[in-house]
Specification:
Elements (H helix, E strand, L loop, with lengths): L1 E12 L5 E9 L2 E8 L7 E13 L5 E11 L3 E10 L4 E10 L2 E8 L3 E6 L11 E12 L2 E12 L2 E8 L15 E7 L5 E6 L1 H4 L4 E7 L4 E6 L5 E5 L4 E12 L4 E13 L1 E10 L2 E10 L2 E12 L4 E5 L2 E8 L2 E9 L1 E5 L13 E7 L1 H14 L3
Antiparallel strand pairs: 1-4, 2-3, 3-6, 4-5, 5-8, 6-7, 7-10, 8-9, 9-12, 10-11, 11-14, 12-13, 13-16, 14-15, 15-18, 16-17, 17-20, 18-19, 19-22, 20-21, 21-27, 22-23, 22-26, 24-25, 24-27
Amino acid sequence: GEEWAIAMGLDGWLPARSEFMLNSRGINGQDLMMTLQGLTVGESTALGLDSEFLIRETSGGITEVTTTTHFVMSNRLDWIHALLINREAGARTEMLINDIPESIDLRASLGTSISLDMTVPDAYRRAGPAVDSMMMQQMQWMDGSWWPATIFLTDVPDAINLTTEPDLDFDITKSLAFQGTPVLDFSASADGMSLYIEANGRAINSRGEIILLAEGMTDRMVIKPTEDYGLAIRSGGDGVDRIYLRASNMPTTPPVVLEEMEALGENLRSATIHVIEIVGPYSVIEIEDVQGGRIVASARATAEVEAIGMTFDLRGVLLDAQTTGGVPTGTSLGVNGLASDLSLLNLIPGFEGSTHHIIVPEPLSSGVLTFCATFLGGD
């Protein structure tokens, strides 16, 4: 790999403009552009910046860029923007931070995994969020196109740690529904941050595309595959206000391809999802330990049958049997999706119980709808 380092120290400096720019072009096939905005013109200013960049190629030809930065200044800044272009590797890395405190320690890595660790020293902390917003993006040039992985954060507290990386535990004898799903692990010093992650599979050497949006996060959230190849969602406190997950173009059990899957949770504290294969692609979905306000889920899948040269647009009539604390509390019916509120039993003072769902595709109606969608078209 390659290593870059930038060290800059200024004391008693009188800025002539509110903007400071540092440009370096063509060094070992790389360009670096950094801009600081929000300097006070004519006022004595102290500035210290120590940054290291490690650039290396990982699996699948993905370029990974890791930066470690210590920043200190005599006043807050409006924003910092940094752009690193590696022409030889075909990679473009960009970072934008708005409303910067006087000092930050930052470590970030973009590649097959995404990680971010940021801390504001105690002496520079204030009430409310430490940073207004932050954006990081890594783009990979492959097969004549750019493939991006992007992360946005808003209302960032004084200390956060976020990692997302592909799960590498595979077993072809088990359900493939969630194998390879990225693991998200987040912790923070305070509640209230919002998060947006969008990653094209080619950008992180993973199958399919992923979008994750979380609003009003607590100080802890984990999304990861379970030991028995399900998917677990856990959030601290009263749960995340809203969480939205979309996965698309993901192969599952051959010949089925998950064209798009969407899930929305409100005030969700926990949920564990398992896909239990019965015969071939016919499966039963089990969602257990559901604690929170509301879940909405939908999916669209296709199956390509090479023997007859046709692609079937799959439709599913789903029956959802719900129990809470062992008590049957409801049944729902949906086509390619379901919406469910947490059982009303949890509104009773002193009653605490997680909700359990068994979602079963009804074969006859599903077959009729699949036939109509495939041969007659329509949504």
